[in-house]
Specification:
The complex is a heterodimer.
Chain A (H helix, E strand, L loop, with lengths): L2 E5 L2 E3 L5 E8 L8 E6 L5 E7 L6 E3 L7 E6 L4 E6 L8 E8 L8 E4 L3 E5 L2
Parallel strand pairs in A: 2-11
Antiparallel strand pairs in A: 1-3, 3-8, 4-5, 4-9, 5-6, 7-8, 9-10, 9-11
Chain B lengths: L2 E4 L2 E4 L5 E7 L7 E6 L6 E5 L3 E2 L7 E6 L2 E6 L8 E7 L5 E2 L3 E5 L1
Parallel strand pairs in B: 2-11
Antiparallel strand pairs in B: 1-3, 3-8, 4-5, 4-9, 5-6, 7-8, 9-10, 9-11
The chains are: A mainly beta, B mainly beta.
Chain lengths: ~120, ~100
């Protein structure tokens, strides 16, 4: 059974940093691309970032490029999102999501339950 | 690529046929998926490549379309179908539609 578990969310002040982690099991992690997708209060899903199976290709939404960094450790079956210079508009549930392809961008077929990030003074 | 869904919300009765549309700002072939998110739950993949039913998804769900115009249809609405539906393109990176909230009358 595929399991995707996020951690690291919490309350953080604007301009500070936070690192999200995601541990997976139940599939061969280094065969698939992974993503972070967020859901802000009262808004729809927003794709944040994606990384291919071997970290050779990474992509970001315009809203986070230059502030967020996605990475993975295939030996630890883990995905990360380093978030710097956080803004109030980054407040959201952040989902760790498995792609069905090795490269970024096909169907997102397994989702974690999400971790909540609140950016506020 | 911008994805525009309509309607933004709808209310229907159990057993009704429900249709949600999604329009891409430029042609994306069939690079289009549909997801369903119930309140408090993670999103779930329903349809991939515009018209293929994901394993385990009930057959009352179907998808169609190509190019810029796509449709998700629920043939007979069930109570567990409430929630928000999203289309997602993957022709260039990934973008989601703004969502369609579905309620039961």
């Amino acid at each position: 059974e595929v399991q995707v578990v996020e951690s690291g969310g919490g309350l953080v002040q604007p301009d500070r940093s936070l690192r999200l982690s995601c541990e997976v099991s139940g599939f061969i992690f280094d065969n698939f691309a992974m993503h972070w997708v967020r859901l802000a209060p009262g808004k729809g899903l927003e794709w944040v970032s994606g990384i291919n199976y071997n970290s050779g290709s990474v992509n970001y939404a315009d809203s986070v490029r230059g502030r967020f960094t996605i990475s993975r450790d295939n030996a630890k079956n883990s995905l990360y999102l380093q978030m710097n210079s956080l803004r109030t508009e980054d407040t959201a549930f952040y989902y760790c999501v498995k792609d069905a392809s090795r490269e970024v961008g096909w169907k997102l077929d397994s989702w974690g339950q999400g971790t909540l990030v609140i950016v506020s003074t | 690529i911008q994805m525009t869904q309509s309607p933004s919300s709808l209310s229907a009765s159990v057993g009704d046929r429900v249709t949600i549309t999604c329009q891409a700002s430029r042609a994306i072939d069939n690079y289009l998926n549909w997801y369903h998110q119930r309140p408090g739950e993670a999103p779930k993949l329903l349809i991939y490549d515009a018209s293929n039913l994901e394993t385990g998804v009930p057959s009352r769900f179907s998808g169609s379309g190509s190019g810029t115009d796509f449709t998700l249809t629920i043939s007979s609405l069930q109570p567990e179908d409430i929630g928000t539906y999203y289309c997602q393109q993957y022709d260039i990176l990934i973008t989601f539609g703004q969502g369609t909230r579905l309620q039961i009358k």
